[in-house]
Amino acid sequence: xxxxxxxxxxxxxxxxxxxxxxxxxxxxxxxxDTDSDMVENPAIFEDDKIIMEMFWGNKVSEEQENxxxxxxxxxxxxxxxxxxxxxxxxxxx
Length: 93
Fold this sequence. Notes:
The chain has one domain: Alpha-Beta Plaits, CATH 3.30.70. It is 45% helix and 27% strand. Strands 1, 2, 3, 4 and 5 form a 5-stranded antiparallel sheet that branches. It has 2 helices and 5 strands; from the N terminus they run βαβββαβ. By secondary structure, the protein is of the alpha+beta class. The chain has helices at residues 12-31, 62-83, and strands at residues 2-7, 38-40, 44-46, 49-56, 88-92. The relative contact order is 0.30.
């Protein structure tokens, strides 16, 4: 699965939030009750986008994956709100 964050303007704010964002995503992944590990590729920065690609090591249920995605979306919205970032788009693929 791929998480793509698109920002309406390139900003130094992006650099400031990347480490907390990845830390929270890792913590959320670890909180999911599954025997599967997740493999993450390093985040890719393209102009106004941050692309994170993640793979479950073993098959997880749709409920577990949706739980992870929803928790991640809520955490990212909170991080962006605290950082004062308003113009962004979050997509899962």
